[in-house]
Here is the input.
Amino acid sequence: MYRELNKKNAIDPTVMQTILLDELCGRTEELYDKLGAYVSFMGPMSRRFKEEQQYRFLTISAGGHGRVWYMVNPQPDLLVGIITQVANSWFPNTHLEWLIDHDPKRVEYIIGAVNAPKHFDRGVPFFEEVEWIAWNDDTVNHVFQVLCDGFFIDKKLYNKIAGGNNV
Here is the structure.
């Protein structure tokens, strides 16, 4: 008799799946709303570099030098810049200095072509500024090009991800 009562009170598996799926969808919508609110609240957490700043070019006279590309972190106390793509031009008898937070790296080659930039999967972080200076030791003028793309991320989130303490 107990088995007969238990069968009558049992819920159809299809109905149970529908109930569970509905509950899961409700929770997913709730999480989506919370995540959207979090991203809106964080604001510049995932702000991309401005399009007009990504690509720059400059004619450097023979024997001269000049700043081709420059970007400053707009909020160094709150944000970390992450460079994801780089491209540059290069000519014989010239070199560039790629300065990340005032630390220069001499570049005597093409890292990536402007129409096919090098992508950095892990990104190159900077906390203060990035600068590209071209040095033309050649006897003719050259037009130097630099493309640098990326985004800014919240510094606290960056420290959690990178495991650092860059306050």
Observations:
- The mean pLDDT is 83.
- The chain has four helices and nine strands.
- Residues 14 and 20 are 10 Å apart (CA to CA).
- Helices lie at 2-9, 13-42, 51-54, 155-162.
